[in-house]
């Protein structure tokens, strides 16, 4: 019987993955009981619902810390000022959809355990993907990062969480224009590679996007020193690169073709629908044997994952046999 193409299953109206722990409203009573420091930020909003001010970076960071503690067992999480404070539900969704991709690839076995190895390109100061991925599935991670300050902060988070530190290795990328060279060691391979690329093509574009977020939150545009304030933090390489996400991912695709067996599924988030045609052309030129686009949604925000592989049928069958046996 011919293998059927992968089709992600539809999710409920919230848009989040069915296994996502954040599909319902935040339980602020439970969160503040577990993390009392959150209480100062919790109050009724304009609709009479108990919430926080999501335009307040300190409130968002404190909520993240509480969510990571309650749902994933992470303690002492923090990020330096002006670094990206990631929305936990959306980050968890990426990981759950990658688990689905591996489940499909094994023929129906949800992959768990430290044997599953994941490379996170651009792990950031927050180390959010390895933390959630290990807590949810027990996977092992290598996180690469070009920013030494961000990497030091991620290392401090791991130092406070020995259970995670044993499963997560951090590596400094000393060649900023490279993705895999200098990070993937000779003979090393991964089941998955993931990446949350800088979406914007310039700092001005990133600032304009942040101003739209302020407007959506019902707040006046915020500035500091005449420059737009980024309401969820982030700077430099976290937010923008020359050519934006399309150019970034196309370079990643080209480099992945140079080491096609180092990873089964290479993947990246793609924020803009308009980036897809160029990415598909890059995949065709690189000789990818297969690729999927997986749609995701969180409220009004829509994004997607592009996944590609260079494995042929024999290699895929061998991988599936090995992973199913374990």
UniProtKB/TrEMBL annotation:
<keyword id="KW-0963">Cytoplasm</keyword>
<dbReference type="InterPro" id="IPR029063">
    <property type="entry name" value="SAM-dependent_MTases_sf"/>
</dbReference>
<dbReference type="InterPro" id="IPR016909">
    <property type="entry name" value="rRNA_lsu_MeTfrase_F"/>
</dbReference>
<dbReference type="Pfam" id="PF05971">
    <property type="entry name" value="Methyltransf_10"/>
</dbReference>
<dbReference type="GO" id="GO:0005737">
    <property type="term" value="C:cytoplasm"/>
</dbReference>
<keyword id="KW-0949">S-adenosyl-L-methionine</keyword>
<keyword id="KW-0698">rRNA processing</keyword>
<keyword id="KW-0489">Methyltransferase</keyword>
<dbReference type="GO" id="GO:0070475">
    <property type="term" value="P:rRNA base methylation"/>
</dbReference>
<comment type="function">
    <text>Specifically methylates the adenine in position 1618 of 23S rRNA.</text>
</comment>
<dbReference type="InterPro" id="IPR010286">
    <property type="entry name" value="METTL16/RlmF"/>
</dbReference>
<dbReference type="GO" id="GO:0052907">
    <property type="term" value="F:23S rRNA (adenine(1618)-N(6))-methyltransferase activity"/>
</dbReference>
<protein>
    <recommendedName>
        <fullName>Ribosomal RNA large subunit methyltransferase F</fullName>
        <ecNumber>2.1.1.181</ecNumber>
    </recommendedName>
</protein>
<comment type="similarity">
    <text>Belongs to the methyltransferase superfamily. METTL16/RlmF family.</text>
</comment>
<keyword id="KW-0808">Transferase</keyword>
């Amino acid at each position: 019987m011919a293998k059927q193409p992968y089709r992600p299953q539809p999710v409920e109206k919230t848009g989040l993955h069915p296994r996502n722990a954040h599909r319902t409203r935040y339980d602020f009573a439970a969160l503040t009981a577990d993390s009392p420091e959150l209480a100062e930020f919790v109050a009724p909003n304009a609709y009479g619902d108990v919430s926080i001010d999501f335009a307040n970076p300190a409130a968002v960071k404190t909520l993240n810390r509480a969510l990571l503690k309650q749902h994933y067992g992470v303690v002492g999480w923090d990020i330096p000022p002006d670094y990206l404070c990631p929305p936990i539900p959306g980050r968890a969704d990426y990981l759950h959809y990658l688990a689905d991709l591996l489940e499909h690839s094994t023929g129906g076995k949800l992959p768990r355990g430290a044997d599953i190895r994941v490379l996170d390109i651009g792990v950031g100061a927050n180390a959010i993907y390895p933390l959630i991925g290990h807590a949810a599935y027990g996977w092992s991670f290598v996180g690469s990062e070009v920013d030494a300050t961000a990497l030091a902060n991620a290392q401090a988070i791991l130092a406070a969480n020995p259970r995670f530190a044993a499963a997560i290795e951090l590596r400094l990328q000393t060649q900023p224009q490279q993705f895999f060279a200098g990070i993937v060691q000779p003979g090393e391979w991964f089941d998955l590679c993931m990446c949350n690329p800088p979406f914007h093509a310039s700092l001005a574009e990133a600032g304009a996007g942040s101003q739209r977020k302020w407007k959506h939150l019902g707040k006046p545009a915020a500035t500091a020193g005449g420059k737009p304030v980024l309401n969820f933090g982030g700077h430099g390489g976290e937010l923008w690169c020359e050519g934006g996400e399309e150019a970034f991912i196309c370079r990643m695709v080209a480099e992945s073709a140079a080491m096609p067996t180092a990873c089964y599924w290479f993947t990246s988030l793609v924020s803009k629908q308009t980036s897809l045609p160029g990415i598909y052309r890059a995949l065709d030129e690189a000789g990818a044997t297969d690729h999927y686009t997986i749609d995701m949604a969180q409220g009004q925000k829509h994004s997607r994952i592009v996944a590609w592989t260079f494995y042929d049928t024999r290699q895929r069958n061998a991988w599936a046999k090995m992973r199913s046996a374990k």
